[in-house]
Amino acid sequence: MIDLHCHSVFSDGELIPAEIWRRVKVLNYSAIAITDHADHSNFEFIIKNLLKIKEKFKGLVPKLIIGIELTHVPPEFIPELIKESRKAGAEIVVVHGETIVEPVEEGTNLSAIIGKADILAHPGLIREEEVKLASKNGVFLEISGRKGHCFTNGHIVKLAKKYEAPLVINSDAHAPSDLLTKEMALKIGIGAGLTQTEVEAIWKKTKERFV
Question: How far is residue 117's CA from residue 136's CA, in Å, rounded to a whole number?
């Protein structure tokens, strides 16, 4: 089990990175990415401090992956900030997509895909042409376990299957109770329109790509 989208006290999460790591270790995760909310003002601060704990936890299981979630950044700035985040040390760059429960600016999904973010989180009612481009650019579309964001999971899965876009199942955890067991992640995938075999294939592909 891996999760590539969760939040610590470096943004709006409840736990410090070490406690996130410990809690997912108990859940038998093989890897966890901490991907705190960021814009131009704080992305370097977050990545710099995650690098400290990654160095200490080197070689331990679950693997700790340094990530960032670019959030409510104006679309025209997203591709460049993706590059800057990677330069600063981010191993996974997530972009906060056009969820239907927040006023995310239109064009965010497209800019994230053009900029080749690793993961487009909760992309809402993403357009077909954007899913086609995500497939071409290898951008993973998120099936979300978070309330509200999960409302469009079925739409995302339908188009991703049609255009063979890569998918990932993430918790978007902000609190301990948000972290997913493997059983719950499977249920979320099946509830979105996938079979168990398809969910297991997603886990395998995600692990091969990011872990």
Answer: 13
- Choose among 144, 43, 140: nearest CA to 102: 144
Q: CATH number, domain at 161? A: 3.20.20.140
Structure tokens given for 95: 């972009």
Measured CA to CA, the distance from residue 10 to residue 76 in angstroms comes to 25
Q: Cβ(32)–Cβ(20) under 8 Å?
A: yes
116, 138 Cβ separation under 8 angstroms: yes
Convert the pLDDT of each residue in 148-165 to its tens digit. 999 999 999 999 999 999
CA atoms of 72 and 121, how far apart (whole Å): 12
Report the domain count for the chain: 1
Q: Dump strand ranges (E) for 20-152.
A: 31-38, 63-70, 92-96, 119-121, 140-144
SS3 at position 167: strand
Amino acid of residue 53:
I
- Provide the 8-state DSSP code for 140: E
Is the separation of the CB atoms in 119 and 5 below 8 Å?
A: yes
d(CA 138, CA 210): 12
By residue range, what is the domain housing residue 202?
A: 2-210
What tens digit of pLDDT does each residue of 1-57 get?
A: 999 999 999 999 999 999 999 999 999 999 999 999 999 999 999 999 999 999 999
